[in-house]
Every structure is written in structure tokens, then in C-alpha cells.
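[SOLVED] Need 3D model of a two-part complex

Original post:
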Amino acid sequence: MPPSRDAIVHRGDEDEVCPVCKSSRYLNPDMRFLINPECYHKMCESCVDRIFSSGPANCPVAGCHKTLRKNRFRKQTFEDINVEREVDIRRRVMTVLNRREEEFDSKLDWDNFLEQREEMIFNLVNGVDVGKTEADLQQYASENMRSIRTNQDLEAKEVSSFQERQNQEQELARIRRQAAREEKENERKEVMASREDLLSRLASGRPADAAAIAREGQKVLLKKSSARRSEEERIRLKQAALRGSDSKKPGQAAATAAEESGSGLIKGLKKIKSPEPEKPYDPFGGMVPNQRDYYTLRDHYPSPYLDPIRQDTRVLAGGYDLQEYYSRTLLEAFAGLGCFINEEVSKREASSLNAMKPVGTQGAAPAAGSSSQGSK
Amino acid sequence: MIEDDFYRTSSQFRLWSFAEDSLHSLRQNTNRLASDRVRGALRRAREARQSANSSAVGTPNPNGNDADSKLGEEKDIECLTAEEEQDLVRYFCEQIVQLGESYKPPLPTIVRATAIQYLRRFYITNSPMTYHPKTIMPCVLFIATKTENSYMSLRQFADGVPGDTTADDIITPEFLVMQSLRFTFDVRHPFRGLEGGIMELNAISRGLGLPTPHLPNQTPDDLRRFISSLPPSQNTPTSSSVSDRLARAYHNTREILKSAAQMTDAYFLYTPSQIWISALLLSDRPLAEFYLDTKLGGSAQLPESHPFTHLRTKLLTTLNNCSTLLDSYKPLASDADAKKAMRRIGKKLYHCQNPEKANLAGQKRVPTATAATAATASASDPATPESEMERLAKKRKLEGGQAEKHDIFGGELVMERTKERQI
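Solution:
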């Protein structure tokens, strides 16, 4: 049972009263109130110490029979106890239903999931169908333990990397500021030095040269500063490039290890595709070497011309293999037997526009040759 | 069939195989272009001559007379037809065979066959009216000696060519020829295929034949029995052993491949293995049909739905077409009418030879730099007159001489210009 609204509404600073021991802040200025998320009844610290030090006990508020433990008592964060309770429930539900957007097939599914989650939170907060909702939540948690864990890990990682990045950026900003400060100092020093140099030269030089020296000094100054500026620009670009490469998203691993949720609480989750196991490498792309369709090659063909070669050391010493001759002649005997040029070539010409244009004699004119031949 | 895919990668299949009608239209087109150009060139030559004459005489011709003579001459120019061109090319193909024969030792068959195919390929996109076959023929034979790996020195080669042909005359059109061949020198001949086929048939006749991969239930003994019980063909004596029969078939087939296959369009229209099997069909029909049956299954052995049945019927029509083409060939030497016709064509060609292309040697000497400018110029007029070339060359030489005056490496460009301006 939530505490009665009256107790919360009439809560002044002065006349705050512990609902258990009835001692007020007026008497005890250091009084702190604690709550237990089991029933959200407020009581003062001394009451908690007094009642629960010796182990779990019932809530002392009349009509509330919840068993409370001392270690669950904590300080209230929000003034409104209802808000406090809703935040707690929300946190609990969120840790269980922690699906991420990339796990869903479509934006619509993700939105549906969000709505469902909000509805469950609403139910729990307002006490509608509490039993069923709790049961659903429990079942889901037990079924999807693993994916919940991985998503939690991911979230933690994201938080930590975000912080890291934040720190890095601050550090960089600090370095930049320092560099700029030094830069300014150096510039000032240089300006002073060159001005002094100019003055000394003016002092020692002839009066006729005065204008020339002054102009020259000005020019040197300008040149120096422009060189410095371009150097700065270069460094800045380099740093920007470095930052760009750093800021690649760390670990966008789609950890979709979700089990097929048995209760089917969440719809529209992506199917997990386990990658196809790689096939063993086939260097011939499915063809069998030396496989032919028209003939089977023998090791030896009887022939009065070729047989002497098989014993002739003068031929064999060079590495000549008669097998080469056999395979080549037989291949040429059948290569193209099934190519019907009349059909295939006209089909080819129809399909490709630039197959073969009639070139005429102009193509062979030696002077114009390179241009017309190249265009074919 | 994997063997067919091997052939499909060859340049002969990719670039030099044509459907029959597209080959025809290609030749017609070449002929039309060349005749147009010849007419134009002859007219230009005549005009140049006339203007030279008239300036020499100093009295301008009356206009009407001039037009009359032009009209009369226009009729004179009568160009070769595509068929006449083809006959002429075939005549020169036979000349290649003879020329190859005249060397000692004679050039190998394969060199001659390659040269013939080069010549035939060259004259698909070029016309004899533009480049006379007389000048191209020795050149293709010389290229073929090199590509077919039976090289001989150019001087030795030139000595064998009849007439006062010099070594320079032979290699002058070499680049032109190679360009027209699209730099593909690989010619797939049917000769080696024939060797392989006869080799396998020999093995079958001795009971050593292995079954074809797709027909595993053939046995060597069955094959041997089939080959020895083949019906005799019309041109073999009945009482001959199988090996004699094979040897005779081989010899006859090879003769067909050496002559008819070279002199007809077979290489453009069919693949080498189709050509040799068609030639085998001509010389020993039962044997060739038996061999095809061992490869693709006989008509009785296979069901209708088998893919080989379809392939087989298609292949048989193709082979029959090819063998009719091969059979239609008659050698020129044995035909008196053809000889007479050839003489007429030769005479006709003398009159319609493109005068601007007559001197190949002059054109070859064009330096590459001017060739580039000439190429742009010739986009509109492909036949740049020779005088134009000479003018360009002379101009370049003049410019070169001027630059050399200042500095051996040529002075700095910008400096020079400013200096000139100051002066």
C-alpha cells in the first residue's frame, strides 16, 4: 500500500513528524528519514535502527504487513514518494527489457517494443494486472538471460568509452589552449626583438636609407608571421585528422545473441544469421583438370610414326613428353565441334553493338590507322 | 562441352568467325567503299593532269568541251564487283601455295595455310582495288613464316619471290597487313585435329579405344567390332584392312584440307574440328559417321530427350553444309573458263586500281608526327594525297632547321619570345 497522500502533502520543514515514533524535527534537528522500496513507508533513522537491527521485521505502519530488512533502507531521492517509486520500477524493468534498436527488424518493431515496455511500467506503477506483468517479466528474464547480460555489457562499455572520449577531448582542449598561449608569447617576443633590431639598424645606418630599412623590417615581420600561421594551420589539420580517426565508434558489434524468446513477449526481433561455413578452396572453380567431354585420353596410342619417339633419347632428353602431343591433337580435334558459328556469332553481334563494324578500306590507310583501328 | 569453351576463347572465334550473310554484306560494303574511293581518286588525278595541261598550253578550254570529256570519262571507270574481288583473292591464294612450293625446302603446309588465311582475312576489310594482292601476297607469306615458327631471313625469302621484288617491297606493307589482321596471328587449323582423330581411330581399330566420358557403356571390343564391320565407302576397295582404310582416309582428308578448306570460306563459317570432320565425311562417309556415333551416341542408342540427340542433329546439318562447301571447290588450274575470267579481271583491275595507294613505299615513310596531323586531316578525306604528305614533311624539316640556328637544344621558349619582341 502506498502511503496516504496526507502524510506527504503536510510535510513542512519544522513540523515534520516520524509516522512511527512521532518525534518531530523540532525536537530532533538531525533527524533523517529513510524509506524501504518494499512499501515506501517513511520512518526516521532511529526507528530503523531500533526496529530492524535485530533482523527482518514487519513494517511498523498500521495495516502494512510487509517484512522489511535494514540493508534495503535508503535515503529518498525525490521529494514525491510516487516519483521515487516509479523511478525504481522503471529501473528494474529497464534492466530486464534491455533490447537495443539494432536488434529489431524495423523502426516499427522497435517502437512497438518501447510502447510495450512503457505499458508494463505503467501497469506496475498503477497496480493494474501486477501479477501477470510480474510473471511475464520473470519468464522473459529467465529465458533471455544471456542476451540481457550481453546488452548490459555493451551498455557499460558504451558508457565507459563515452567517458573516455570526453576526457580525451578535455585533455586535447587543454593542450590546445596551452599551445596557443605559448604561441602568443613567442610572437610577442619576436615582434619585440625585430623592432629592437630595426631601431638599432636605423640608429647605425645613414639617414638616406631610413625609409628602406623601415620597409624591409616591416616585410620581415609579415613574412615571419605568415610562415608561423601556415605552420599552425598544418598542425591543426593534422590533429583534426587524428581526432577523426579516433572517433570511430568503438565496438559496434551487433551482439544479437538473443535466444528465440519462448514466450514471444517481444515481436520483430531480427533473425540471427550464423555465417555459412566456408567451403574448402577449389583452385579450378569446380572443373576437374584434364576432364574432357568428347574423349578419354589414353597413355599411349599406337602409331608407326610416333612410337620410335618414345625410345629416342635425343628427343626425350630435352624433356619432350609425347603425352603433350596426344592431349593437344585430341583437344584440337574436338575444340569447337559444338560451336555453331552461324547461330552464335549472329547472336553475339546482335547483343553487342560494337562487335564488328564494317571498316572498309579506310581502316587500312596507314596514316589514319591508329585512330580508326583503335575505335573498334 | 568443355572443349567448345576452349575454342570460344580463341581470337579466330571472337574476331574472325562470321555468319554467312554478314560475311557477304561485309564484303559488299568493302567493295562499295573502295569503288567510291577509286572513282574519286581517278577523277582527282585527271583534273590535276588537265589543269597542268591547260596551264602549259596557256589557252583555257571552252567550258562545254570540258564537261563533255568529263562525262565521257566517268563512264570509263568500271570497278570490280565483290565476286570478282573474291575470285582474284582466291587466285592469289593459289599463288601462295605455288610460291611456298618453290622454296627449297618447300615451306611447310601450315605456313602456307596460315598465309592464305591472313590474305583472306586482309581482304575482308580491304579491297584489291585499293591494295593490289600482288604486293600483299609475299608479305603475308613472310609474316606466316614468322608466326608459324619456321623463320627464314628476309633476303633469302625475297630471292625466292619471282620478279624483281626487293626485300623492301616485301616488308613495306607489313604493318598495314598486321593492322588489318587486328594483330591476331593465331590461326586454328584443322590439320592437327585430323591427326588426333585418326590417332584415336587407329587405337579403336586395335581394340584400345576408351569409352567417351558421357557414354560409359562402350567397351573396346564393341568399338573394334563396329569399326571392322563398317560398310565400305564408295571410293575404297572392299578388300582392305582397317588400318589401310584409315591411312587412305587420312591422306584424302588432308588433301581436302590443304586445298578446298583453304580456298573456300570454310575457316570463316565453321570451326576447325567441324572442317576436318566434314572433310572426313567427303573422303570416307561411313567411317566419319561411325566416329561421330562413338562421340555423341548413335541415333538408336539414345532416347529422344537426351541433350546429345539435339546436338547431333544440329551438328549433322552443319557438317553436311560444310562438306557441300568443300566439295564445291574446283582448282583454277584445271578450269579453262576460270583462267580466262581471271585474265579479264586482271585487265579490269589494271584500269580501276586506286592511283593514290599505288606506291606503298612512299606512304610508309611518313614520319609519325605528321601522321598524327594527317590522321586528323584524313577524318574528312581518308586518302590524304601524297603531295600533301611531302609538303608537311618539308615544312617540318624547314622548321627544324630554323630552330637549330639558335641553340643546339633549342633555346628557352619564353625567353626567345620576349627577346624577339624586344628586337
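Edit: The beta strands of chain A are 33-35, 43-44, 57-58, 67-68, 74-75.
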